[in-house]
Design brief:
Elements (H helix, E strand, L loop, with lengths): L3 E2 H4 L5 E10 L2 E4 L1 E2 L13 E4 L5 E9 L6 E5 L11 E6 L1 H17 L7 E6 L4 E5 L8 H12 L6 E6 H5 L18 E7 L3 E4 L14 E8 L5 E7 L2
Parallel strand pairs: 1-4
Antiparallel strand pairs: 2-3, 2-8, 5-6, 5-8, 6-7, 9-10, 10-15, 11-12, 12-13, 14-15
This protein binds zinc ion (ZN).
Zinc ion binds next to helix 2.
């Protein structure tokens, strides 16, 4: 059953109410959610469900379900199971998610500083990385850090843009990430726009203004294979 993805229109929702529609061995499905399921390199959200009794249930991870746009909220083994039809108050681990949003948006900015095909990526709460198909001699930590932070300091508002599959097909240059093609089949593709800096298909959660990233530092640059030169970053402060 598809879940209404509230984070798609508002990544800043920290709480919401939702109804339980399925309980199975992988976890809990709701009619709507603020929890982002792991995907596009971004880690799944954690947080809590609060029952009407006040009892709290810890959500340890969020993953995509089997059906299109369905979301499964994972619980620990010993956690109580809510019942189908029950109304829950969802509470996100906001500090963790906000760090993910800042780092995720920082990767969009960095992908405009390192101009090369992206062959992989990952976003964890404490660090994020992109892999590039590029010669190692082209990657200078100091330059990447300086130029990424200079762009961040421009304080540009981000925008979500939807285009049709046909428009996407007509603009293949939008796809930087060779390993991940944007999801098809829904008739439209979601893009993240940082006007004047970056425009690319992305289903993840981003900050409203790139100034919110603060600043980043390059943790390391290393080769993970001929087409995977890895640049890892973290937030400063
Ligand atoms: Zn993104």
């Amino acid at each position: 059953m598809p879940t209404e993805l509230l984070f798609r229109d508002d990544a800043y929702l920290k709480t919401a109410t939702a109804r339980v529609v399925a309980v199975h061995e992988r976890g809990i499905e709701l009619d709507r959610t603020i929890f982002y399921p792991q995907g596009g390199g971004q880690a799944g959200d954690t947080g809590t469900f609060m029952r009407e009794s006040g009892e709290r249930i810890v959500v340890t991870d969020t993953r995509k379900g089997d059906a299109f746009d369905s979301v499964v909220h994972a619980l620990s083994l010993e956690a109580p199971r809510p019942e189908v039809g029950e109304t829950l108050t969802l509470e996100l681990d906001w500090a963790r998610r906000h760090a993910l949003m800042r780092l995720h948006t920082a990767l969009h900015v960095m992908s405009c500083v390192v101009v090369a095909p992206v062959t992989g990526g990952n976003i964890a709460p404490d660090k994020a990385r992109l892999d590039f198909d590029i010669d190692m001699s082209m990657l200078d930590a100091g330059r990447i850090e300086r130029e990424t932070n200079a762009l961040i300091a421009r304080g540009i508002r981000t925008e979500t843009v939807w285009i049709t599959d046909e428009e996407m097909d007509a603009r293949p240059e939008l796809v930087k990430t060779m390993s991940v093609q944007p999801p098809r089949g829904a008739g439209r593709v979601r893009l993240l726009s940082i006007p004047g800096v970056d425009l690319q298909p992305c289903g993840g959660t981003h900050v409203a203004n790139i100034a919110e990233i603060g600043a980043v530092r390059v943790l390391k640059i290393r080769s993970e294979g001929r087409r995977n030169r890895r640049v890892e970053i973290a937030l400063v402060g």
